[in-house]
Amino acid sequence: MLKRNLSEILSETLHLVIELAKADFGNIQIVDPNGHLRIFVHQGFPDWWIDYWNTVSAGQGACGTSIALGERVIVEDVAQSPIFVGTLALELQLKAGVRAVQSTPVLNQSGQVIAMLSTHYRSPHRPDAKTQEMLDMFAAVVSALIEQSFKERCSR
């Protein structure tokens, strides 16, 4: 992949997404061989937050809800969201300084979710339509990068 690894390229992509979306944090998760989302790159989160989300069962949080629904999930205020209220996840989001999150599924050419692109905000927030279009564009870029990386690995 142009003599650079997928992690470096996705880290740079995530940095750009966070900046353009005016977010405070972000991550890209990749679906592992067992069908679980695993955080591949992130920006702004403490290790304990990453550890929690890498071990939580499927279907939880904005990302799990996004996979279940097959579409982007926007949580304008985690403290008021049925996805988080009454859960340990809410406590950890607030402890990390997260008040809002959006998760955009990354689909392969067959329409299967292969990754998740999420941005997080320190205050209640809803990305506008233009930002959501930009997130969709970057999700397509992330998909192409992941698929190209897998093709290169398989051809070795």
From TrEMBL:
Pfam families given in the database record: GAF_2 (PF13185)
Protein species of origin: Methylomonas rosea
Protein name: GAF domain-containing protein
GAF domain segment(s): 5-156
InterPro entries, alphabetized: GAF, GAF-like_dom_sf
Lineage of origin: Bacteria, Pseudomonadati, Pseudomonadota, Gammaproteobacteria, Methylococcales
